[in-house]
Amino acid sequence: MEKAASSISELPQLKKVLVVGSGGRENALAWAISKFQEVEKVYVAPGNGGTKDQLGCHRLDIQESNNEEIIQACKSLEIDLVVVGGEKPLASGLADKLRGAGLVVFGPGKEGAQLESSKNWSKNLMNEAKIPTAQHWSASTEHEAQDLVSEIDRPLVVKADGLASGKGVTVCNSIKETRAAIKESFEGKFGEAGATLILEECIQGPEVSIFAISDGETLEILPPAQDHKRLLEGDKGPNTGGMGAYAPTTMLSKKDLEKIKEEILLPTLYTLRKRNINYRGVIYAGLMLTKDGPQVIEFNCRFGDPECQALMPLMPSDFAKVLQAAALGCLKNAPKLKTSPLKSACIVATASGYPENPRKGDLISIKLKQSQENPIQLFHSGTKISKEGTLLTSGGRVLSIVSQGDSYNEAFDIAYKAINQINFHGINYRQDIGYQVRSKVH
Ligand code: AMP
Ligand code: GLY
After folding, report:
1. Which domain-ending residue is among 145, 174, 201?
2. Do 34 and 95 share a domain, yes or no?
3. Whether the Cβ atoms of residue 16 and residue 77 lie closer than 8 Å to each other
4. 227 Cβ inside 6 Å of ligand 2
5. What is the number of other CB atoms lying within 10 angstroms of the CB of residue 1?
6. Which helix (H) or strand (E) holds 123?
7. 245 CA closest ligand 2 atom index
8. 305, 312, 346, 348: which to mutate for ligand 2, most atoms within 8 A of CB?
9. Cα 122 to ligand 1 centroid, rounded to whole Å
10. What is the pTM (predicted TM-score) of this model?
11. Does 435 score more than 80 pLDDT?
């Protein structure tokens, strides 16, 4: 009998992995990758104050923008797989440079990363692929944008075309606000990122985050997650990078997910292929579940943070092989993705002053008690080790506290108890993460 073409044993060995990035997302990815028995070492560049505490993980003091040093390190350390965590290095073409140097990379090249790095490019692709999304107009001068507002005569969502660290979107409630947001952007509020603007129809509904792993040909969808973008309880206050997440969300059935795959994700992938883009990495669709069905709010070219921290503990121990197979363009050879049936909860502890002006340099005290039955993962983001060896805050989002349970109530109870054992000056977190799925929110 002929040997089956698809088999995990056909994938090359995976002993050394490099994760590029310094956030909680990269910390969680490194942790999940290091669980695979074949993996001997996971390097994280530049990592953070928590990297070395993770079994099998090591920090490399190389900035994610330093392409040459990353390539050198990959060669000298004989890295089998590079996983690029964030949108900035992807949008600047790090994955292309690494592939050019013969490395195996999980993460799209510069062209594919335009799904996130240019909203205009992304919206045009959505229209070409007939993907449900809010109607949009683009403008490259203030005059053009203000004329469009007069013509459309409704409040609109104003979006900077380029990467603006999650701050480039203003959902306007009036025409006056729309005009003011346009003016600010053309006055340089978002720098080059705001040189072209997208004006969008305002749509409504709960938001969910969908992550699909693509090998350029086909896709594997992960359990859907829900982020909490606003700073304050009750989804109030300014937008942040994300204050907490949980997975899987109950808002989408298996059938809904299948439909999202058929009507949103696969058409996206086919349209990328039509443009000769071999997309090997994550397609992250931020969806709004409107009364007319799911619509794409935005695409991102990487895992969400903090959704990734909630998702990674649900991944099987051979998840690293799935990333490797996608990076090699052969998901069909990956082990079947058997995700955990548990519910996962993630709470983000932030520094005082976040998101505007986070305080840094405070001592962090962690007195976590782990137990066999209540697993807790502590993923660091804005932390660093001082010269004296103490753990200090060094960014807005400091730590993600993650736990799993048979129910959402159980998972969140464990995570909230755990966060009480962590302290630093001005620690802040939302008490109502997961309110959508918890029976009581204190
Ligand atoms: P983004 O940075 O594209 O994720 O947008 C930030 C937030 O703005 C989203 O999470 C939504 O809450 C909101 N938003 C973006 N586009 C729209 C839209 N067309 N209608 C309503 N809200 C939107
Ligand atoms: N959690 C939202 C993002 O990563 O963009």
Report:
1. 201
2. yes
3. yes
4. yes
5. 3
6. helix 119-128
7. 1
8. 305
9. 14
10. 0.95
11. yes
